[in-house]
Design brief:
Elements (H helix, E strand, L loop, with lengths): L2 H6 L2 H4 L16 E3 L26 H11 L6 E4 L1 H13 L6 E6 L4 H8 L3 E6 H6 L2 H8 L4 E5 L11 H10 L5 E5 L21 E6 L12 E4 L2 H8 L9 H10 L2 H26 L4 E4 L6 E6 L3 H8 L2 E8 L2 E8 L3 H12 L2
Parallel strand pairs: 1-11, 3-4, 3-5, 5-6, 6-7
Antiparallel strand pairs: 2-8, 7-8, 9-10, 10-12, 11-12
């Protein structure tokens, strides 16, 4: 980077380490189980004859459909460009750069840290072990100086779940002090654990959702922020004037019809069953040291020899390596088709 550019950059951006997404690695392969995508491709009917006009900033048809699906009022829904934009909007709205902080529970989704670093917001890093095992008072006191407390539920990349009752306890303890943000990107795979019901009782709870996972629309970049109308109205001041394109709105509306949602639920059942079967096979495999219980559409395992990852990649089988718990021999496997998961077991059995 030239000295001219470096001189113009703020310190936090100059030192920023960008989030390395599954697709940013520019890998080549034939079987993709690295990005927690759905294996079910879908088709939609879209008209392109009105692209000369600006879109509705918050398309009412989609807002109403998602509100009905989530069991909330339409005033409790804000449509975003994926859940990632929801994370960024919350940090921009509620955190003062150079002064405020957010709390996270590591290992967890990397965009919380990247967003905080980008906006010069401090990071209070606690552990998943603390979140799961500590009592509400201990957790709340550890987060009390932060404006936002991010709880990824189910958590990525471990797949762990936190009971709604504990999230409620934390929100209660942090009332008037911090906003509890529950990232439910994978909630369709364990919908009984959703925190949406907490929106009735807590003004400091936000739930983030996406159509990228169970709805099989990762390429659409569509998410939703669910909260009380007072909080969402503040976020509306910060969001871009036209965040949702006409094409995205048209596809999202079709994806949220009753028939389409019924299909999603069937696919979730199939994927959950495949996950359970894969987990059992992995636990019995001599090349696997540990298999984490997962409530999402992936399984995270620790390998006996991390060199096995290179063997998989060379055969075209692409999964996501991770450094977890200070160990660099972990890999996250997205739940794909029966044939794709058979490749996983064949790879391990062939080592």
């Amino acid at each position: 980077m030239s000295d001219v550019i470096t001189t113009l950059l703020p310190k936090n951006i100059n030192e920023l380490k960008a989030y390395s997404s599954a697709k940013s690695m520019k890998l080549s392969g034939s079987t993709w189980l690295n990005a927690n995508e759905s294996p079910y491709a879908k088709t939609f009917d879209v008209s392109l004859d009105n692209l000369n006009r600006y879109p509705d900033p918050q398309p009412q048809t989609v807002i109403d459909a998602y509100a009905d699906y989530a069991g909330v009022s339409e005033e409790n829904v804000l449509m975003t460009r994926g859940a990632d934009e929801g994370i960024e909007l919350l940090v921009r709205t509620f955190c003062e750069p150079g002064k405020d902080s957010i709390s996270i529970f590591a290992p967890t989704y990397g965009m919380y840290k990247v967003t905080a670093d980008t906006h010069n917001v401090a990071l209070n890093v606690l552990s998943q072990e603390q979140l799961i095992n500590d009592d509400k008072t201990t957790i709340s006191e550890a987060c009390a100086q932060s404006k936002l407390v991010f709880i990824c539920n189910p958590n990525n990349p471990t797949g762990a779940i936190l009971p709604v009752e504990k999230i409620a306890e934390i929100a209660d303890q942090l009332s008037g002090k911090a906003i509890v943000v529950v990232d439910e990107a994978y909630i369709e795979f364990c919908e009984e654990y959703s925190s949406v019901s907490l929106l009735q009782d807590f003004k400091n709870v936000v739930v983030l959702r996406t159509l990228s996972k169970a709805f099989a629309l990762a390429g659409l970049r569509t998410g939703f922020m669910l909260s009380n109308s007072e909080l969402l109205n503040v976020v509306r001041k910060v969001i871009a004037p036209y965040p949702v394109s006409t094409v995205v709105a048209a596809i999202a509306a079709q994806a949220l019809t009753k028939d389409a949602i019924t299909q999603v639920k069937r696919q979730v059942q199939i994927l959950n069953a495949a996950k359970a079967e894969l987990s059992l096979a992995l636990k019995d495999n001599k090349q696997v040291i540990a298999v984490l219980d997962s409530y999402a559409n992936f399984v995270t395992v620790r390998l006996k020899d991390k060199a096995a990852i290179d063997v998989a990649m060379q055969s075209g089988l692409i999964m996501r390596p991770f450094v977890l718990f200070e160990q660099d021999d972990w890999i996250r496997i997205s739940i794909g088709t029966e044939q794709e998961l058979q490749q996983v077991t064949d790879w391990l059995n062939g080592l």
